[in-house]
Amino acid sequence: MSKILVVFYSFSNTTRMLAEEIAKQTGGDIRELVPEKSYAFNYNTAAKEVRNEIENGYCPKLLSGEEPVKSYDYIFLGTPNWFKSFAPPILSFLRNVDLQGKTVIPFCTHGGGGFGQIQINIAKECQKSTVLPGFEAMSNFSEQQVKNWIEQIGL
């Protein structure tokens, strides 16, 4: 039986809710990426911080989430869409955890920007992994939408 891990970073709990739904429907384990330094609570301040980090390829130190994934076959990887890319804690995970030979399945939450470049950027970081088509959702996603996607990718 294949083992599934759902890894996510969430700023406002929307990505967390989607990660929990995916874990529930797949029977996967769940792991939150927690950066050492939290982002500013104020959206505008956080946006300035994040834009600079993304542009510079910054990998924040993580307090949790970088444990080995050796026993897992499928890694669902979730992030908010920040400036058309994934949140910097995702880059830390991708660069510090060995995903060679794993199947990586991206998902993101957004306020209208869709996937942006998230899937492309994850594929660039996961060249020794198989990357399946992802799922993007706003906060009003439904259990059925998640179920349909999981069936579409064959899990």
Q: What is the topological layout?
A:
Blueprint: E1 4-8, H1 14-26, E2 29-32, E3 34-35, H2 43-55, E4 62-64, E5 74-80, H3 88-96, E6 103-109, H4 118-125, E7 130-131, E8 135-137, H5 143-152
Parallel strand pairs: 1-2, 1-5, 5-6, 6-7, 6-8
Antiparallel strand pairs: 3-4
Structural notes for this entry:
The structure is a single chain. With 155 residues, the protein is α/β, with parallel strands linked by helices. The protein contains five helices and eight strands. The protein has helices at residues 14-26, 43-55, 88-96, 118-125, 143-152; strands at residues 4-8, 29-32, 34-35, 62-64, 74-80, 103-109, 130-131, 135-137. Strands 1, 2, 5, 6, 7 and 8 form a six-stranded parallel beta sheet that branches. It is globular, with a radius of gyration of 14 Å. GO terms for molecular function: FMN binding; oxidoreductase activity, acting on NAD(P)H. This is Flavodoxin. Pfam families: Flavodoxin_4. Residues 3-153 form the Flavodoxin-like domain.
